Amino acid sequence: MFLLPQGWYNDIRNAVRRGNQLMPRVTFVIGATASGKTYFINQNFSNKDVEILDAFDYQNRAYEESGFKGRMPIKVQIRCLMKANENLLSDIIDKLKHGRDVVVEQTFYKAKRRIVYVDAIREAVKAEIEIYVMCPGKERWMENTRLRKMVEDDESYERHVAEIEFPNPIEGFDSIFEVTDNGIKLRMDPPYDEQFLEDARKEILEEKERVKKEDEESRERKELLESMKTRPFWHYCEVCGKKEFITDEEAFVGGWDYPPRIGFFGMLGPRTCGSCQMKDTLYWKIQTSGKLPIVIEKYLNEKELKTWRRIKGEPESLLVDENEQESTGQKR
Ligand SMILES: [Zn+2]
Question: Which of 217, 241, 267 is the last residue of a domain?
């Protein structure tokens, strides 16, 4: 299966010589899980003078470097995948620049992901870019999944197939091949119009900017929380109304119960000076209500509501004097 005729590689290589200069080539092999990508690459490229890169290795490395074991938050996962894709892309470009042919095993279901790659490669180096799309029939695919002990139901083949957007020439590939149970076929569909490219590039750019912004915000928040350990900030006693602009250290010495030393910013806990008691706090009231320890704003009196809103807004709510915030109309 999937075997190309003897000598095909050089035949094709010769056919695409442009002038006297033979351009390096990158070959993408894409397809769903268990569609036979690795097998296809082994059969057709492993004995050629090419570099074989597998996106899966890059992803695993990125996951490892993230330091998460087991369950990984989706946000971290997205960043790992982005990192893996960037590293893979930079390796591809590096090898092409050194005149090496590269074969890349990728999933690459979506046109927009491929377009970013093709754009970046075209910008960096003169190379031929081709793609093989693994399209096994249902029986073969089910057989592959059985061999891999994957648990699949009767509809999963259709689901996997539907996920892949078949590459279109507008994406910038020199050649696009469909690999079916019957062999390999050049398949250049009628090109979509330019708008398709522009939309894809815009979408990817927005995605990148969104992630960058989130990263910046979480870095700023981390820095702010770190600074709360040393900078002076407003400590408000929710019981007697006393307020002091002091550091965490000074508050501790003064007997305050206050984050970051006691409890956490933004989470309900006592906020008291050295003279007041825990049993008079909102925290105590909620904890001992006999109901679920959840704050329901409509059951709070004005004083409690003020305390609750201040806590929810921490640590920012403690940086500027509350009275000043009110008089300047500044809200957090
Ligand atoms: Zn007090």
Answer: 217
